[in-house]
Amino acid sequence: MNKQVALEQIKTDILSQNICPDLAEQATQLVMGDGNVDADIVFIGEAPGKNEDLQGLPFVGASGKFLNEMLAGAGLERADVYITNVVKYRPPNNRDPLPSEKAAFLPFLLEQIRIINPKVIMTLGRHSMEYFLPGAKIGEVHGQMQRVQMDDRELTVIPLFHPAAALYNGSLRQTLIDDFTNAAQAIAKI
User: Fold this and answer.
1) pLDDT at residue 1, as a whole number
2) CB neighbour list of residue 168: distance below 8 Å, 6 or more residues apart
3) Which CATH number characterizes residue 66's domain?
4) How many distinct structural domains can be found in the chain?
5) What global pTM score does this model have?
């Protein structure tokens, strides 16, 4: 089975199993992921926002524009990477995803990662970081490459601040750009 078909099956499974029906009911659509299914880098955010919910694609609002800038600064394009979120439906009023919602979507996220089989996972914000580095504090580990054992394989995870954090807190903008650039250089050596 090719990767695109396998990823479509995950979407079908989420819909048929009625994962997080309260979220699904108020969302416009399921937002699975976007990008290169053979990517070396997978970015994982927390959940779709308003623009993502309307367009059905992750990171297409202001945070997405900043992510695109950082990709370009590292010599990459969206077509080079795969971008997804922990939670696949927009939480009401862009609230943080609940622990139960993150837990419900975890098996599907892990299946996406298994299918794509990236060299590196870059988490965007603490909600996606918590899956791979439970108990870590983003302010202490951002930009640092970590090796994480998941099931039967070792993953390389680089936690980053969420691009939205840099939009709300200008002092984080350069930190995120620096972390991103350093991570991209480290990944190139892998």
Assistant:
1) 67
2) none
3) 3.40.470.10
4) 1
5) 0.95
